[in-house]
Specification:
The chain is of the alpha+beta class and 456 residues long. The protein has 13 helices and 19 strands. Helix 1 packs antiparallel against helix 4 (124-154), helix 1 crosses helix 10 and helix 7 crosses helix 8 (298-309).
Length: 456
């Protein structure tokens, strides 16, 4: 069929290779009514103002920290302790580590090569520049700790409103801080960690094979301990402890000719709990971990640990994991290593929880080596990106015009309901648009079950 190139182009069309092409309308009013169903008073996107957290902490006229009474008394005490401790951020910072970071920042800037050379040479002016840089970093760190304390106090007492386009239900979704020693988030953090690392069981089964009791590969738990300093260790001391644990395992593997593809290690840092004799909390830093690989002689590991630490620390405990159905119980070993992430969150005093949050500020608690390091099996499951559905009619939820974070008590005065609480009350899965089909238990289900076992 021949195309007449000289034929006039109708309105609303543009020339194309095989004839005129209709131009889609950019005006929503020109679209069919059924395709432009919206709800008045809603907004499709959030601005940066909608993510601002109310400022709940400040200093009174006499210099004491003060908090707006919006959360529980214990949560407020913990936040106030953290907020006030930020003034002494110099005590929480290791200058030697900051010097290394300053050198790295100079190396990244080619235009400051001369200043780098003068600083490494001990020039007084370059040293003054470093101290100015350090003062700015300390101020930033102080503000970061204060913001974390503010987030802690705002946890679960602020929420974001959401409206259902179809049935008109007005609700809200609570906001959580995600701090590791928060009374509301600690248990959920354990669940996420356990759900993430329980997937390493595939590596355990693959490496151990069907040998069972007679397998050349063992699954064991280990504990590295340090001397009690009589105070809470600083962040730099915790980093040094984890570096020494990693160095010890590497030296032991080198002496036993164990390759990185032949073992997996995972450990979690922990402080002791309440000491009845001292009537105070213990401050002895140690770690609990899981070892998968060839047999490790405890005397050898203890000797290497003592040599690496070079301060009198020597105690290392290695124990075999109990068997379950003729197989080592990896779930039990992993739970033993990770349960300390939330074991005492609900029992510790606010001051103790604040001290733990400050000690682990900027420090990773869970560490991996060998086959467990960055294993594809431990990567997060893909999350659904669809908007949450209405728990009452399964319709679409949208943000209202005023979608900023607000106090729950103010939202409830407007007649809004907690959407997640309503979803649980109706027995619906979280953020689901339809009833899910029967499925196998996921890693999250395993975490929930194991958490109940820990409480039993």
């Amino acid at each position: 069929m021949a195309i007449d190139l000289n034929a006039p182009i109708p309105a609303g069309f543009e020339p194309g290779l095989f004839g005129p092409i209709e131009i889609p309308s950019s005006n929503r009013k020109d679209a069919p009514r059924e395709t432009r169903k919206t709800s008045r008073g809603t907004t499709p996107m959030l601005s940066w103002h909608d993510f601002e957290i109310p400022q709940l902490l400040s200093y009174a006229d006499n210099g004491d920290p003060a908090a707006i009474p919006v959360s529980s008394e214990k949560q407020a005490e913990q936040a106030l302790h953290m907020f006030d401790a930020a003034r002494f951020v110099e005590d929480l910072t290791a200058e030697q580590r900051e010097r290394k970071r300053y050198v790295q920042s100079l190396k990244r800037d080619k235009d400051r090569a001369d200043e780098l050379a003068r600083f490494l040479g001990g020039d007084l002016e370059a040293e003054d520049n470093f101290h100015l840089w350090l003062m700015r970093k300390l101020e930033q760190k102080k503000l970061a700790i204060q913001r974390k304390a503010n987030r802690l106090l705002a946890c679960s007492v602020i929420a974001r409103p959401m409206d259902c386009i179809d049935c008109g239900l007005k609700g809200y979704v609570r906001w959580f801080c995600g701090c590791r020693y928060c009374r509301y988030c600690g248990d959920q953090i354990f669940r996420r960690l356990f759900a993430k690392y329980i997937r390493l069981k595939e590596i355990v089964e693959r490496l151990m094979g069907d040998g069972g009791v007679y397998s050349a590969i063992v699954l064991a738990t280990f504990t590295f301990t340090t001397a009690n300093l009589g105070r809470m260790p600083r962040s730099e001391e915790i980093r040094k402890f984890n570096e020494d644990v990693r160095k010890t395992l590497r030296l032991v593997c080198k002496e036993l000719s164990i390759q990185s593809s032949q073992f997996g290690a995972l450990w979690c840092d922990e402080f002791g709990g309440w000491n009845d004799k001292l009537q105070d909390y213990n401050t002895n830093l140690h770690c609990h971990g899981v070892w998968l690989g060839p047999f490790l002689p405890q005397k050898l590991v203890s000797a290497v640990w003592s040599r690496v630490r070079a301060n009198g620390d020597y105690r290392v405990v290695i124990e075999a994991v109990p068997f379950y159905h003729e197989r080592p119980d990896f779930s039990r070993a992993l739970g033993h290593a990770l349960k300390y992430t939330s074991k005492h969150v609900s029992n510790y005093s606010p001051e103790r929880l604040a001290e733990l949050e400050l000690a682990f500020n900027g420090v990773r608690r869970v560490h991996t080596m060998g086959l467990f390091y960055n294993a594809k099996e431990s990567r997060e499951e893909p999350q659904t990106t669809g908007a949450p559905s209405c728990p009452r009619c399964r319709g679409r939820l949208a943000y209202p015009r005023n979608a900023k974070l607000q106090f729950v008590k103010d939202l409830e005065k407007e007649g809004r309901v907690d959407l997640e609480a309503l979803r649980k009350e109706l027995g619906q899965p979280v953020n689901s648009t339809e009833s899910p089909p029967p499925r196998k238990p996921t890693s999250s289900d395993v975490a929930n079950t194991y958490r109940l076992l820990l409480r039993a």
